[in-house]
Amino acid sequence: MLKGKTAIITGASRGIGAGIAKKFASEGANVALIYSGNKEKAEAVKAELSGVKAEIYQCDVANFDACKETVLKITEDFGGVDILVNNAGITRDNLLIAMSDEEFSAVIDTNLKGCFNMIKACGRNFVRRKYGKIINLSSISGLRGIAGQANYSASKAGVIALTKVTAKEFAGKNVCCNAIAPGFIETDMTKELPNRDEYIETIPLRRAGTPEDVANLAAFLADDISDYITGEVIRIDGGLAM
Ligand code: NAP
Prior knowledge:
By secondary structure, the chain is an alpha/beta fold. The chain has helices spanning 15-26, 39-47, 64-78, 101-129, 140-144, 150-170, 196-201, 211-222; strands at residues 6-10, 30-35, 54-58, 83-86, 132-137, 175-182, 233-236. The chain has one domain: 3-Layer(aba) Sandwich (Rossmann fold), CATH 3.40.50.720.
């Protein structure tokens, strides 16, 4: 259970992040919900939570100064932070030959640099308090590479390396850092996928994942019961990338 813990969840206005916020709150965690532009959706997620403290914060995770200010504000508002979930992410798919500089940089800046920014903004306090749980959202795209996702696959492979470095640098201070690598999860990010039904047939468990599936794993990694796990990458993909 996460009772009494405070968690920052980036990208909490929709999809997997919203699922994690609901699961954490149901286990008693106070939650700071970060969104980028969708204030109404973030408000709607907050309105579904009860019995815990929950606040929403606008912050572009690609901007370090914004992350630093937001983490400071959250620390003041909640009196400390115990858990950081780096979930915010975007796609800008294109074949490598046709991929623009903007498409490549936007994805790296949000998905990879965003994790670095938030870890840096929260890390000093975790180290000082000798406690912290960091959970980064990677993807099976970062494990095996997916055609049309040079930017996204590179960002998610980078998240895995960043997770391992963070785990090694922070381990002596009782701060754990792990990555989750989802496969195909039903969210806004995947709703435009062409040949959806044929794709699902290639998943050994024969269904798409849900935000709740991922939220259950995030709750395990945020909980003290997983205290001896760090630097790990856990696939949650119905067996897709086996
Ligand atoms: P989603 O439904 O598209 O939601 C993305 C979330 O990220 C939104 O809350 C969005 O905020 C936020 N966000 C985007 N850019 C941001 C920025 N610059 N600063 C702060 N927040 C930002 O995505 P999802 O499918 O839930 O994916 C969540 C994470 O899981 C991502 O890292 C994704 O790469 C990873 N993942 C997803 C799948 C999948 O199949 N869905 C598979 C593997 C990995 P606004 O609502 O304000 O725009």
